[in-house]
Write a structure and sequence with these properties.
Immunoglobulin-like, 2 domains, four-stranded mixed beta sheet, 12 helices, Peptidase_M14_domain, DNA-binding transcription repressor activity, RNA polymerase II-specific
């Protein structure tokens, strides 16, 4: 925060452009209670691990709704997408109950996410030196037909790695951070506390490294438009004050480069023929089975890797619009606006509902109508 403010005031063109063109939200601590406990214990002893939990005893790493498991269960029952959405999955009602086992901090973050149309996010942690991206949840292996029924407390020892539809985009974002870090890709020395799990790249899918259900990354991806990653800044979980300057130098360029990636892909506004913005319109990118929605002003942002994409905008009561959008390698999102025309599908659905949701039979001139056809005609008239 200090760096951005100072460099902006000093006229740094890179920082000025970033601050001017980007809504940057910074949260110094997601778990202030835990931080206070860790600070009191200090960096010399292992007691700083007490800071992992909130004062109420919640682990924020696993306290968000597990929407990934709910999605996969719905897929196995063939409920997706007609009865269960594959994106913008709502928060389960039982999770919002007052007596639910949910931390105050978790509720606050979820409300914050719903209020702001975030596009890109990172939660910064310590204790390792890598970038982790969704899915963090491991998908259970499907049982074979001959397998015995599983007990309720069954835990699969060999879960499957389920990639997100935006796997290539997540890898790009993770590499953009790791490659700019001064030491993150120096994995020839191994990991911080064990062997290297990143295939010498400094990045890893969360479920491959440390599977956990209910992470903020998975929740953000499946409930909002935001692509969220976990950045592990360095091997020391709670570095000493004298080490902070070097940790800052290690991560400074990575932080700037990562924030700049929010301007990669496509952006635009969805309006009707009168120029009025359409909120909650769906933006569909061909080949990527994960849609986003427009904000209250009809505007949207979609991070994409360089390439050519077939993009469509859809909204209730409007005819869809399709166009080809090109994403370049240079930073700067491609403008792709959509103008939607009103459709008569709402009236058609009303007529079909009156007709029992069956196609209306075509009346051929000169052919006598049956009594049922006459009745339907009178009802429609």
């Amino acid at each position: 925060m200090q760096f951005l403010c100072k460099e902006y005031q000093d006229g740094n063109p890179r920082v000025r452009g970033l601050v001017t063109d980007t809504r940057i939200h910074l949260v110094p601590s997601l778990n202030p209670d835990g931080y206070e406990l860790a600070r009191e214990a200090g960096s010399e002893l292992g007691n700083w691990a007490l800071g992992h939990w909130t004062e109420e005893g919640f682990d924020l790493f696993e306290n968000f709704p597990d929407l990934a498991s709910a999605l996969w269960a719905a897929e196995e029952r063939r409920l997706v997408p007609h009865q269960f959405p594959s994106h913008h999955i709502p928060i389960p009602e039982h999770y919002l109950a007052e007596d639910a086992a949910v931390a105050v901090e978790t509720r606050a973050v979820m409300a914050w996410m719903d209020k702001n149309p975030f596009v890109l996010g990172a939660n910064l942690q310590g204790g390792e030196k890598l970038v982790s991206f969704p899915f963090d949840t491991a998908r259970p292996s499907p049982p074979t037909p001959a397998a015995a029924p599983r007990p309720l407390d069954y835990e699969d020892e060999h879960p499957e790695l389920q990639e997100t539809p935006d796997h290539a985009v997540f890898r790009w974002l993770a590499i953009s951070y790791a490659s700019a870090h001064l030491t993150m890709t120096e994995t020839f020395r191994g990991g911080c506390h064990a062997q290297d799990v990143t295939d010498a790249m400094g990045i890893v899918q969360g479920a491959k490294w440390h599977p956990r259900a209910g992470s903020m990354n998975d929740f953000s991806y499946l409930h909002t438009n935001c692509l969220e990653l976990s950045v592990y800044l360095g091997c020391d979980k709670f570095p000493h004050e004298s080490e902070l300057q070097q940790e800052w130098e290690n991560n400074k360029e990575s932080l700037l480069t990562f924030m700049e990636q929010v301007h990669r892909g496509i952006k635009g506004v969805v309006t009707d023929q009168q120029g009025e913005p359409i909120a909650n319109a769906t933006i569909v990118v061909g080949g990527i089975n994960h849609n986003i929605r427009t904000a209250s002003g009809g505007d949207y942002w979609r991070i994409l890797n360089p390439g050519e994409y077939r993009v469509s905008a859809r909204a209730e009561g409007y005819n869809p619009s399709v166009k080809t959008c090109h994403v370049l390698y240079d930073i700067g999102a491609t403008q792709c606006n959509f103008v939607l025309s009103r459709s008569n599908w709402k009236r058609i659905r009303e007529i079909m509902a009156m007709n029992g949701n069956r196609p209306i039979r075509l009346v051929v001139p000169g052919r006598p109508m049956t009594p049922r056809e006459r009745l339907r005609l009178r009802m429609r008239l």
